[in-house]
Fold these 4 entries.
Entry 1:
Amino acid sequence: MTWPILVILVLLIMSMIFNALGTIGLHRFPDVYTRLHAATKCTTFGTIFMTFTVMAHSIRLYVITEEAKFLNMAIHTFIALIALLVTNPTGAHAISRAAHKMGVKPKRAVRDDLKDKESEVN
Amino acid sequence: MIELTTALYAAAIAIAIYIVICAFRLFLGPTAADRSVAFDTINTLVIGGMIALGAAMWETLFIDIAIVYAILSFITTLFIAKYLEGGGS
């Protein structure tokens, strides 16, 4: 009876740890690209674990009580997970592409391979 | 069950604190790209907080709003990125 609660709590604590790491990385890293790396990856991972927590919680209550609303909530959370997985990395990629086109250089960078490639193509 | 509800409320409060910390980067980011990174992070954290609150209060409507918020914030991020690129000249 107690091990599902333990699993749910571990998932919740992992979610909180990864969200905290993303928030700290947003402040500690020196330039846009490393900040994007830390913030986007860690918060996406943390929110995925949050959806896993809610799905495990709902499925546990559905197994105990067999009411349809708990299963309903698990399915809706799964749809939210899919929306998050599709949209979040795409947005991060768009931001990094926009930052490169704006002319933001990585800190301590000596050469820009992408710019060399683009000038070769044109 | 009561402990898990309390834990989910605590998670929502922690996410609110993370959002406040990310808002500092939103205010003092040196370039516009930094600000948009912080904005994207805040959007993701808001989705996580909505899911936690929806599970704590047992409102499926919160989860639906989180789905719509995810898609709208994605479109917002794409438009901000398009604006930062500086047009298609």
Entry 2:
Amino acid sequence: MGDWQFFVLLLSNGVLIGLMYSLIALGFVLVYKATDALNFAQGEFVMTAGFVVVAFLGVYRAPLWLSIAVGLLAMIAFGFGLERVMLRKLIGRPIIAVVMATIGLAAVLRGVGPLAWGADTKPLPLPIADAPIVWGPLFIPPIQLLGAGVSLIFLAAFGWFFLKSRKGIAMRAVADSQQVAMSMGINVERYFALAWAMTGVVSALGGIIWGSLLGVDVFLSLVGLKVFPVVILGGLDSIPGAILGGLIVGVVENVAAGYIDPYVGGGTKDFAPYVLMILALMFRPYGIFGKKIIERV
Amino acid sequence: MIHRECGVLKTTYEADMALYPLPIARWTVAAIAILFFVVLPLSVHEYYLSIVNLISIAVVGALGLNILVGYTGQISIGHGAFMSVGAYTAANFAVRLGFPFWLSLPLGGLMAAAVGAVVGIPSLRIKGLYLAIATLAGQLIIEWTINHVTWISGGVQASIEVPRPRLFGFQIAAQREMYFFLLFFVVLAIVGTMNLVRSRIGRAFIAIRDHDIAAEIIGINIFRYKLLAFAISSFYAGVTGVLYTYYLGIANYEQFQIVTSIDYLAMIIIGGLGSVLGSIFGAIFVTLLPILIRSTMEAFGGLVFSSAAVLNIIPNLRLILFGVLIIFFLVVEPDGLNRLWRNIRNYFRVWPFAY
């Protein structure tokens, strides 16, 4: 295999994986955009969704469509409930309180899934072919193609939602200034709940796709750690940023892994994105498309 | 603490800022000292002493993190990594150059302080959630570096065996000897923190936490003090890592992963942000929680579940309770156990004459 072919292969894999990162990052961005809360439990959301789907599929022998539907509904309900029980009480509190609360939530979710359905890795088979599509130098697993496709559809859908729909505009108003939004007759708390429910939907999709790629166990939640470089690079409150950040992270980690891994003995994938993120934080902390609301001290 | 203040009139600022605000507190401190230096080590079984030792190590780390998060208002999710920096520095000095612990311990702390200050540099430009993410990146990068650079981590499974600490030719190995060894550093850390937070530096930290712009206007060099907070806090973390290494006899990065950072954050939140006593309460609580769950489940879990299920339940129940407690304290009692303790104390202060 030639040099450029190797590079193209890494690039194509990076793009597909990157789009799948974007999907998870989208959940993070939705919540941050609407409620100014930083969700450190995004990876655990994805994992929990995966657990629910797998549990219905494997333990209760439900058909796939039903399991996916249950997963989506469960995550929506979970998003609503979470906002009600936990996050509404933390409105107006310092940012560290919200961060720590979601970290606590992450711990709870990491315990609940394995406690309820066992800690072993469970497969989540989707009815698509396993054999990779070979097309010239490209070598594409269908699941990644599906993941990238779903990501693009949902990114486009949410992009439209925020730009055009009445609810989306209201949500942007809430994000911009809660006080002004409230005085214009927008029910702020309802939109907070809606944002968390939307995150639930995105996480459920992420859980199904990532779960079928990696298998469902506690380590699925580690995908959530990749969300941070994605959103920092793209901008915390930007949907196009989530796409671009995802693509950059996906490509960088794949290319870096392809060229550096042989020298350091693996693990570059878990390293390169964070170096990139530190650089971004140093030079452009609001990201590529983010709002410049960094307060300097 | 347990006594009542009565007839104490302070006439100077020095008296008001004193570590012992009341004359009788000297006796309380003396009583506590006797309890911890004589009664506890001589009366308690080795196993319980080993738990006390783990708590001692956690107290040092929690105090350090509280200086940064509780007093200066900067968040760090990278303290586990700073501990590993201290641990590996000390282990390398001890093994390669044969340094005694009283030399490798401060060296480990200083190295952690240097690394912590570097990770804290972004705090100049960013704050709040961005800083949280930056320190998280610091944690992951340091973890990866230690795990992959064999020159630091010593090759086999990234762990280095460390000789037992020696003092005047006397080897500290048993739990009871270790207890006194650790107690010395705990006392040092507690007194050091209490003195730090009432000094000029500590007041600068608190000013930055309360309002950074106002602090800058009254002449506090924010960048320098933020970095200083990171450095001091990481020094504590480094020392914690070194103590842990000497306690276990091995430096291993698995002890200092992101979970550790979160454990320590949980300690100061459950214990109480911005209080020395709270750090101690939090360290005790978070260290005891898994031990209590384990022993309860081992004793009674078999009655309800099968033994395989119990093995699955113990770690997961720990995670769930741990997370629920963090959320509970954040939502219901943001000042933590320290506030509960103060409430109880205030109630009994005038008891039984409430009015």
Entry 3:
Amino acid sequence: MTSITERAAVRPRSKHDWLLLLLKARTLVALLLVLAFFSFAAPNFLSTANAILISKHVAINAFLAIGLTFVIITGGIDLSVGSVVGLTGMIAGWLVLNGIDIGFGWSIQFNTLEIAAIVCLAGILVGGINGILITRFNVAPFIATLGMLYVARGAALLFSEGRTFPNLNGNPDYGSDSFPLIGTGNFLGLPVMIWMLIAVTMGAAYIANRTPLGRHIYATGGNERGAALSGVRVARVKMFVYMFSGLMAAIVGLIIASQLRAAHPATGEFFELNAIAAAVLGGTSMSGGRGRIIGTIIGAFVIGILSDGLVMMGVSSFWQMVVKGLVIIAAVVIDQAQSRLQARVALAQEVTQSR
Amino acid sequence: MSAARGHATHPIGLSIRRAVKVYPGTVALKNVDFDIRMGAVNVLVGENGAGKSTLMKVIAGVESLTEGEITLDGRKVAFRSKDDAVANGIGIVFQELNLFPDMTVGENVFIAREPLRFGLSIDHKTVGERTRALMQRLEQDIDPDTPLGRLRIGQQQIVEIAKALAQDARILILDEPTSALSAAEVEVLFRIIDELKAQGVGIVYISHRLEELIRVGDYITVLRDGEITGSRTMEGVDIPWIVQAMIGGKSKDFSQTQAHEFGREVFRAEDITLPKAGGGFTVDRLSLSVRAGEIVGLYGLMGAGRSEFLECIMAQHPDSSGHFFMDGKEMRERHVAGRIARGIALVPEDRKRDGLIQIMSVRENITLSSLAQFATGFHLSLRKEAARAAEFIKRMTVKVASPDNPISSLSGGNQQKVVIGKALMTGPKVLLMDEPSRGIDIGAKAEIYQKMRTLAAEGIAIIFVTSDLEEVLALSDRIIVMANGRLSGEFGPDADPARVIAAASPAKPANKNKEIAL
């Protein structure tokens, strides 16, 4: 009885199967469409210089989106990343300019590597606080990270009384003169930040696909109760994803402070929304359990190319927002259509089986 | 099939013909014919998973039939939603209460049908008055303005009945209405039923308490594995007849015991107590021990605390007290992972909710508890994982074309085999199985019983929970009966079915309970 269904499941290429395949690859299709459209419609779109420029814009969003992908796969959300970008940027600026004052007229100064490490730890710490609120105190992720959004932004403003830390050129005496290179340096013809993005993407994809932790992240989002009963340490998994998301925000904070050679406390406002959009566009399901790092990267590129391309075409920023919003909604509508189609195909198979 | 056809005194109000209902994974109804006679109590009985609830959901418009037709007063109908069924005079009181604890009794009774003033604002006065009138009719002293959550479960059930009555139901379906009622409340309910019958209301009454059915019923229909196995008037029906129709002659294929010696005690629970929200205990000072290779059947009615006991073993209830010992050493781990590491594995009752990650593949599900076996450091060897998954899929005889197919594409029986495979991959010494044969077809059941026998012969201790009398009698080396959270009886493999049932009944008068309790 069962073997019939299973054979039916393997029997390939009905009309439905093609449609499903097309729907599954929708982000890639969207990417190809925007690429084709802008190479045709926007002048100078297809040039190496432009490609690198767009990539740099995309990278900022992509880091955050990778962090959020993990969080969303577990069924949570992290609204605080934009504020954490601002906060960690300010920490970086402070460390470059002032070091840590230990009193008696002494201060500790750091080299670039140490600054980067401290800033990353700060991001992880903020993510850890989110994680503790969510796992230990049972605060809904939306609320916990919404609170953190305000706290982190306020802290960033408190750092400088709302002023900008300017001229973050570093000091050769302390070994921090290489600080601006994080965001502006090149290595083998590509910007350092793109290399960082490649490394982080590969690392995240590795975690997702090739480690028990990755499997546990998907299981937690797919069915938290079931995962817990199977021996998955759900609380630990959640701690990890929020800390990882904090780390991603810290990296972005570093890059922006380094790129601009200045740290402004308002940096990163609304970044969380762009990052969520990229993850969702890349096929991450807001209800958890589903999503791929590579999909998120493609999603980030779709959004990035869309906004840069529209700018190059001279479309007003008001229309850009409308278009971006429509694309995100369309992505989710298609996602729902795909699930429905999949469910219908599955049920049709069950009915055949019952005969 | 139907001995009760054509009773002029009780006209048929609603009838279902050739009903088939397919769920992903199971066929819940197979060619079912069912009549509801007006002015009479139509009793529906069958084991858990026999299809009673599905049949009622179809009548109440919650689910629609895959095939078959429903006739109401001689005309064909198809209920598209619950509202549709309600508009046609069908009311249902579900086994699981569908109430809102933070709203008042009145608001609950009139939920989604609030009487309005000028079509805008809720007419609280009418809500209060009509609810008070209903409560008087039900002989209950419940204030319409009390928040529902403050009522006892039994009173909440009365509110649910009031809700159905408020909709002027001509057909009233009561799904296990007495499971949470006290003896006095049951008497009230029976009086209400008599009154409704006199008014010509057709009542469908579902219950596991057989004496109750015989007392209250006029017609009886028995379901087994989605098929009707008996349908007649209540005249001359006795408990043996019902039991016979419910569990059949020799329908299920129980494999023979594989003779083997039991080893020493591997697992012991001492004084496990789990307090219930709102007073009382879900599990009440339960102690038991299991030896290697022994199959212990934990029998009882729904709500006896069996599943909760297993959950306590798996560290799911932090507020439970008592001690567990594994090989004589106490288990103090507070995580499932720790308990699994000590050699305990659970096959949960609700496959869908607790057992499987529906959106993952067969392979990912079956290895989920054992990923550490394939990892060096943090690197997961997909090759090792695939090999082990394939091995267990073969061992459990899961019928699937590829291990990478989604788990949801499998039938219920094969899904259950994956859940058991997942538990076995952790290499357990004690296997806990909660309703291992629920919702799967007969063939798969036989395979799972066979598997349990083999595992026991290999020296694994098994504690399994079931509501299926035949199953517990045929499979267990020892039967432990629970009622109201307590151990209410312990029997050998050749126990007398009647005594097992008696021990499981949460006897209504408190003194009877004490007799049975040890």
Entry 4:
Amino acid sequence: MKRSRFPLIVTWILLLFFYLPIFVLVLYSFNSSRFGGSWNGWSLHWYRQLYREREIWHALTNSLVVAFSATAVSLVLGTTAAIALHRFSSRLQKFHYTLIYTPLVVPEILMGISLLLFFAALKLELGLFTIFLAHVTFCISYVAMVVLGRLQDFDYAIVEAAQDLGAGWWTTLWRVLLPLLMPGIVAGGLLAFTLSIDDFVITFFVAGPGSTTLPIRIYSMIKHGSPPLINALSSILLLVTFLAVFFSQRLTKEVP
Amino acid sequence: MNTAGKKKVQEWLVTVPSLFWLILLFLIPTLIVFAIAFKPPDLYGGIGAGWTLETLRSLRKADYAIVIWRTLYLSLLTTAACILLATPAGYCLARTDPRWRQILLLLVIIPFWTSFLIRIFAWKTLLHPDGLVKKGMVFLHLVEPETSLLYNAWAVWLVMVYTFLPFAILPIYAAAEKFEFRLLEAAQDLGARRWQSWLYIFLPGIRRGLWTAILVVFIPALGSYVIPDIVGGPGGEMLGNKIAQRVFVDRNLPHASGLSALLILAVLLPLLAVLVLQRKKGEAASLIEEDA
């Protein structure tokens, strides 16, 4: 049978569509011209300028603090949730599953506004702590889904065997369960970290004065700042993403 | 303690942490949105005491009809474009030989990992009057030099398709990968034309993937806020922008929560519709669980 070439052509056009804007952005970050339209020759001017922007470094620090702490907490909550969902099947777990699954489909702006209203009703001061609470809330679901995926071919008999052979629950956890779950936990952690460091919408709603994160900084630069500076910053972030994807591929071999 | 009781304790130990967190910080806040729509605002941008129907009345008075209509049609058009483009792409991915498939799949996933704001900004520079797309289109006499490609509903649509496309490709690919492609050959051997075998064999065969793709594009599209905010301008505003304006511009939280309650209902309707449709066909609710 002769296959249609149409799907292949669409796929190549789509990949062009995906990468052309990113490519142009990176190219223009090396443009010495102040304005996007004309090309004035290669230059690292915007990267040097970027290095001197103190607000960006401050925002990056905030983002890293939130991302590391939110990843750590959501890893614990997401992993226990995945174990619960996989091991038990009761009505409680059905409800639990709905609660884990729904945040994945709810538009970000709804989570942002509902958390803002919640914090406002509690008269909680907005800042890094409220951002952390919000990030853990959406990261739990992603971690739970990734770890749950890894658990599909996990046999609980191994845990029972360990316990029959005299391992306490602590030994079982550290020597049996965690090593087996490690690839899922690493993949879930990487996903949580990326989502946290990249989140803008929810963060924007629950951030207070002085708790600017990197995406919020980028947003205000897009709104008011100079475009070549954002191009340079974006190129660096793209490089970091590509490296992260590359290493996570090598670590896990297989991605969602 | 007996074994059943011990198992119950174990279940609670691993369930309670995430269950408690999500009830406190997801379920209750979502329900609060509905409650605060009936509260008056206070003078300091917070929530006042007592209950009122004033917010709901002002929602009807303010001219939201056009924004709601735009939100609906942009989300529908985005979903349609994503499905039309993602179906051939998913088919192609599923039929490529495994070595190349990994690379292609990675190329589809990478935009999903890159910063959302950066990708929108990239389009803003391209569509800008000095940008490449604008210059190219003027050069080819496709648009007049004075037409603006930015700050209208079509710019919002284009960037939404760009952003949501990977979300549509992945579930369609996942369904196509399980599809038995020999069925297409059989259909064609039996005299079906190529388009007939696609329409009557392939598309029904991957319908779960299609439904998932529709949901994961349509629902977030309804809540779009950053894309219309950056490339939309006043002519491309969506419901999300109105919510943000009530929060950040006039700091009227009850009004914002009234609009959000509307958005929650808009999101729930398609979700319930798909679930009911699936249940009717006897494919009990496994749609989401399988492809998630």
